[in-house]
Design brief:
seven-stranded mixed beta sheet, alpha+beta, SH3 type barrels, globular
C-alpha cells in the first residue's frame, strides 16, 4: 500500500484503504467529498445529481435523530468531513448545548446558495 496520498488511486474494497484515502486527501479533494444529493426539482433544473455543500445552502436531514428537519448550513469542517446546520443542537450531560455534526451523505440539498459567481458558473456548466 502506498505511503502517501495518490491522485491515481483507483478503488479498493478494503475499508482501511478507503479510510486512508479520505483521511489523507488534500483540501481540494476534500471539498468534493463534502457533497450531498440534490432535490428532484434541482436535479431536473441543473442536470446534476449532487454538488459540494457550501455555507448558506438549505438542506434536509435524511437519516438519524433529526430526520425530516431542515436548516441552513452554518459551518463545514473539511478536517472532519462534517457539516453543521443552524438550529440543530443537542444537550450534553453538563447542560451545555452543542451543534450536531452531520455526514454529507445523510443530507439532501433543497435550495442552493448562489451568491458566489464561481459556483453559479459551475452549476450551470
Amino acid at each position: 500500500m502506498r505511503k502517501k496520498w495518490s491522485m491515481f488511486w483507483n478503488r479498493s474494497r478494503q475499508p482501511r484503504k478507503q479510510r486512508k484515502y479520505r483521511i489523507n486527501a488534500p483540501l481540494h479533494k476534500r471539498q468534493k467529498l463534502v457533497s450531498a444529493n440534490l432535490d428532484k426539482k434541482l436535479r431536473e433544473r441543473y442536470k446534476k445529481r449532487s454538488l459540494p455543500l457550501r455555507t448558506g445552502d438549505e438542506v434536509l436531514v435524511m437519516r438519524g435523530r433529526f430526520k425530516g428537519k431542515m436548516g441552513n448550513v452554518s459551518k463545514i469542517s473539511l478536517k472532519k468531513l462534517r457539516v453543521y446546520i443552524d438550529g440543530l443542537k443537542i444537550k450534553k450531560a453538563t447542560g451545555q448545548e452543542v451543534e450536531v455534526s452531520f455526514d454529507p451523505s445523510n443530507l439532501k440539498i433543497m435550495k442552493l446558495n448562489l451568491d458566489d459567481k464561481k459556483r453559479l458558473k459551475r452549476v450551470k456548466r
